[in-house]
Amino acid sequence: MQAFTLYEESVADSRHKITALQAIVGTLHRCYVFSADNRDALTQSVTSYAAKLLKRADQCRAACAASHLAWQEPPPAAAADGEREQAAAAARAVPGRQPPVRDAQKVMAGLKRALKVVAAAKQQRAATVRGGKGGAQHLPLYVEIVNHYLYYLARGVESMSVGVVQQLLELVGSELRQHDADLDAETRSYWQATQRHIHCLKAADADKYAGLNA
């Protein structure tokens, strides 16, 4: 794929690499023409590039972005009718179009990679900061991952249950309380917005989201 060639040869600045990868992911996510083998190869390339980014924060965000390659919504024409279950039939009706990718296992694997990156960043920070405290630099990443979990829960990814999301919410909530004095205004605002989003989800569908508490 020419985009990967350009990424390797023309994008030298680490600050631009994450932006370029996210653009590639966004484009691939909207493509329904790749065979399963070709899509797997492209996804593996994105995952590999994500792991090679210099900053752990960028690695985490790229891993989260790459997880979306494993879960597509139906093409706009199919989604407009609200007929998700007919997406595969609609795909067959268009020459060359493939059904939307729906691989819950790969979604979870990508998010777990992101969590491992955050854990490694936290440990690295703790080892370099006096007193053994890891600071709060990893907390925005945790909140971002929570929002990816909520996204997949809303879209019915099989492995993404309310219980799984709640476990992460409890972990992140504990981390936020532990580092409350170190939280910057942006992270605090982001977490509060996430909490409001959860309240809205529960208000819209109390049965589905009853077990979520943040």
Structure, explained:
The protein is mostly helical. The chain has a domain of 112 residues. 68% of the residues lie in helices and 0% in strands. The protein contains 11 helices and no strands. The radius of gyration is 19 Å and the shape is globular.
Brief synopsis:
The chain has helices at 2-10, 14-29, 36-51, 56-67, 76-79, 87-93, 104-128, 139-154, 162-178, 185-204, 206-209.
Low-confidence stretches: none
> What is the mean pLDDT?
88
What gross morphology would you assign?
globular
Provide the β-strand percentage band: under 5%
Structural class, by secondary structure, is mainly alpha
Give the secondary structure arrangement, pairings included.
Layout: H1 2-10, H2 14-29, H3 36-51, H4 56-67, H5 76-79, H6 87-93, H7 104-128, H8 139-154, H9 162-178, H10 185-204, H11 206-209
Helix pairs in contact: 2-4, 3-4, 4-7, 4-8, 7-8, 8-9, 8-10
Annotation keywords:
214 residues, mainly alpha, globular
